[in-house]
Amino acid sequence: MAAADELTFHEFEEATNLLAETPDAATTSRSGQLTPQGHVAVAVGSDGRYGAEDEVEEDSDKAALLQEQQKPQPGFWTFGYYQSFFDVDTLQVLDRIRGSLLPRPGHNFVRHHLRNRPDLYGPFWICATLAFVLAVTGNLTLVLAQRRDPSIHYSPQFHKVTVAGITIYCYAWLVPLALWGFLWWRKGVRERMGPYTFLETVSVYGYSLFVFIPMVVLWLIPVPWLQWLFGVLALALSAAGLVFTLWPVVREDTRLVAAALLSAVVLLHALLALGCKLYFFQSLPPEHLGPMSQVSPLPPNVPLPPTLPQSLATS
């Protein structure tokens, strides 16, 4: 009995010393009563050790989670509904860009990077940047060609910005829409994994276009075989990321459908890269070619040289 009293006295003395060092702390009983907010709880265990926790932070986290669950979801016609699709920070965007640049088998972009939180912020600015860089580098190509050949008369082609913007944004929205619709139509064939949502599909396509931005800049090098090499490398990285992401969804389908779908995805991606190369980076557009020289009719009283055909005399 005396030993128990002595142990209790030592525990009380240690708790008193601890409270003296931290005057804002308050003791709690073992029954689990809550202390007032703003104090650090000091609990005495059966082994004589003490633990401290910040109950203010825990209570605030629980209150925020409960408030988030009870908060009504805004309608799709309101601004708050679309605001959630742009609620990403810089680190998340950089992580998703890094994931699109380094595809590898077994690494699903949706599961490892989007994590059921697709965004439209990254795809929107990636498409805008790609369209702007395409138009600028296409004009710079003509400037460099004029320096090599003074007979080329360069004039700024501002319409290329419009063409690039319409092409990129239509591709980044219409192709994912068609792909999502087809996968949703084939949903009954798959058993283990359903199709991605439309926003996830758009986000995957948007981030897959990022690798084309440095490719377009490297196309300024006036070496044709090097330009085609950069284009093939960028196309391989971008298409591989799409294939690795779509494979877990289509592998439950028949082999014919899976092969046809993945082939169509790669083919459309290749057509986009090829169209950008041939339209924005042609060395001499047709409108800059001089008019073909036409043969002017000769007066009837001018004698013809013997080498000209007689048919020109009657013209």
Automatic annotation (TrEMBL):
Give GO cellular component annotations, separated by semicolons.
Golgi medial cisterna; Golgi membrane; Golgi trans cisterna; late endosome membrane; trans-Golgi network; transport vesicle
Tell me where the transmembrane regions lie. Answer: 120-143, 163-185, 197-221, 227-249, 256-280
One of the Pfam families matching this protein, by short name: Yip1
Entry-linked InterPro entries: Yip1_dom (IPR006977), Yip5/YIPF1/YIPF2 (IPR039765)
* Protein origin, superkingdom: Eukaryota
Q: Which PANTHER family match?
A: PROTEIN YIPF, PROTEIN YIPF2
Q: Domain Yip1: where? A: 101-273
Localization recorded for this chain is: Golgi apparatus membrane; Golgi apparatus, cis-Golgi network membrane; Golgi apparatus, trans-Golgi network membrane; Late endosome membrane
Give positions of region: Disordered.
18-38
Query: Its GO biological process terms?
Result: vesicle-mediated transport
Please report the record's description of how this protein sits within the membrane.
Answer: Multi-pass membrane protein
MF-aspect GO terms: small GTPase binding
Family from the record: Belongs to the YIP1 family.
- Biased composition range(s): Polar residues: 25-36
Listed A to Z, the keywords are: Membrane, Transmembrane, Transmembrane helix
Record-given protein name: Protein YIPF
User: Which organism does this record belong to?
Assistant: Propithecus coquereli (Coquerel's sifaka)
For whether the record's keyword set contains Transmembrane, the answer is yes
